[in-house]
Write a structure and sequence with these properties.
It comes from Rhodococcus zopfii. The chain is α/β, with parallel strands linked by helices and about 280 residues long. The protein is about 45% helix and about 15% strand. The longest helix has 17 residues.
Amino acid sequence: MTGFGERLHAALAERGPLCVGIDPHPELLGAWGLTVDAAGLATFTEYCVEAFAGEVALVKPQVAFFEAFGSAGIAVLERAVAALRESGTLVLADAKRGDIGSTMAAYARTWLSDDSPLCSDSVTVSPYLGFGALEPALQLAQETERGVFVLAATSNPEGAQVQQATVADGRTLAQVMVDEAAVRNAGAAVLGSVGVVVGATLAAAPDLSALHGPILMPGVGAQGGTADDVRRLAGDHLDAVVPNVSREVLRAGPAVPALRDAVARAVDGFAFLRA
């Protein structure tokens, strides 16, 4: 197995520059005519896996919506992650984990260890207990050739309160997180495996010039971000950007062909990223 960054780069070239979320929000379950329970969750997820497996470069299950149904929801997530990975589709577990010491190490084992039933190709992590607190996840990801996406400048308005605060040298905390990720990616032949999350709804992005890693851009579609916003924020680093589209695709369901058509339209809308 090659490093996550290299595998992601190849998948984006083959299947188009897109990350599609599996977000089984109760409103979407209802819109699909499904019950808001573990059975409805399972059916929703099965349709998504069938539609996206082998069709999308990166699929991002939103872990919270599965956890909401307890152990039955986690079982659905386990099956989905396994099925997607068996199809050769890269999986990003959107868990946003962040803690210290042995607790962070346990989170890392959950999502990045070969012997975990929830083992994914990558996971989102929160660095706002200090970037160094992520070390257990960063180390395990390196050992298992998986990836992490570090929250840097997120699309929610509340994030600015923390992320735009400045440190002694004048950098914002968001910029510090990008710079710390860049250090981890130094020397990667194609694309490093430590990505960052930069919201597509932001007025401006941190300086991404030294990152040499993937840039996940959520906030496209339902949250108001557009392809033009992605182009503006990415600047000269379009080949590293992975726009995340969830509800705009999922609203096309539940029919699998309709979901695939929605994916194709979204990929076409970001064709400039691989021009």
